Automatic annotation (TrEMBL):
TM region(s), chain numbering: 12-34, 77-96, 108-130, 136-156, 181-206, 239-260
Superkingdom assignment: Bacteria
Keywords: Cell membrane, Membrane, Plasmid, Transmembrane, Transmembrane helix, Transport
Organism: Sinorhizobium sojae CCBAU 05684
Name listed for the protein in its UniProt record: Glycerol-3-phosphate ABC transporter, permease protein UgpE
Length: 273
């Protein structure tokens, strides 16, 4: 009996802790959904029960916001940034791992050092560069600084360590050039790595706020994060409308994650097929 009670107690503590952490993680979303059904005054009072103002909040949101344009802007920025980042970073990660040299290691170490530079230190130089290039108030100004991601390059290089060298050797014997090996062998084999990186980069680009706030200056180019921020910072913010906008802004990232969660786990574990 003592042995059973001794084994049960750690399990109760473990599952209790995990359950508490899960509740704390899910609670903001639950509160957001409940808030979307209440009037702004009820949200400010801290009402935790569903209300009857959902239809009014949704109608007000679609009245105040050009929803198709805003979501198109966010999707364009996120998809373009994701595709270009994966293309550039996977090539860089592949090259850093496959082609070994002392100079390569120095360059790689210098690139990793850039991870310690806060983005706040880069905003002014980046803004000046975009201004001289005539890209202010364009989506290209949002996308370009995100393409060369040191973290994604590091991730692809670490994943490339699990890439079977025998496949590359066999492809070279068959007469394939390096770009053909990368495109026709490396990319299909590392698809789980690409899927995991896609989720990370897409979610980062979709939720990007600070840099778009600086370079996007007209309502026609703003993304969903900027629109929600402007609604929340109004003189008399309607928090019910803000909650509706936040839910709608969350849905694309949730859909991408749940559709690709299996590949995401495989990519995080370094799975190669």
């Amino acid at each position: 009996m003592r042995t059973k009670s001794t084994n049960v107690l750690p399990a109760i503590v473990t599952y209790g802790f995990v359950g508490l952490m899960a509740f704390l993680s899910v609670f903001p979303f639950i509160w957001m959904v409940i808030g979307a059904t209440n009037a702004s005054i009820d949200i400010m009072k801290g009402k935790m029960l569903p209300g009857e103002a959902l239809a009014t909040n949704v109608a007000n949101f679609f009245t105040l916001v050009n929803v198709p344009l805003v979501f198109w802007n966010s999707a364009k920025v996120a998809i373009l940034a994701t595709v270009l980042t994966l293309a550039v970073s996977s090539l860089a990660g592949y090259g850093f791992e496959i082609f070994r040299s002392r100079q390569r290691e120095r360059l790689y170490s210098a690139m990793l050092l850039t991870l310690m530079i806060p983005f706040a230190a880069l905003m002014i130089p980046l803004f000046i560069m975009m201004g001289k290039a005539g890209l202010i108030n364009t989506h290209l100004a949002v996308v370009l600084p995100t393409i060369g991601s040191a973290f994604v390059v590091f991730y692809f290089r670490q994943s490339t360590k699990a890439f079977p060298s025998e496949l590359r050797d066999a492809a070279k014997v068959d007469g394939l050039k390096e770009w053909q090996i990368f495109l026709y062998i490396y990319v299909p084999v590392m698809r789980s790595t690409y899927a995991a990186a896609f989720i990370i980069v897409f979610m980062t680009a979709w939720n990007n706020y600070l840099w778009p706030l600086i370079v996007l200056q007209s309502n026609e180019t703003k993304t969903i994060t900027l629109v929600i921020s402007s609604l929340a910072s109004a003189y008399y913010p309607d928090y019910g409308v803000v909650m509706v906008g936040t839910i709608l802004a969350t849905l694309p990232t949730l859909a991408v994650f749940f559709l690709m969660q299996r590949q995401f786990v495989q990519g995080m574990l370094g799975s190669v097929k």
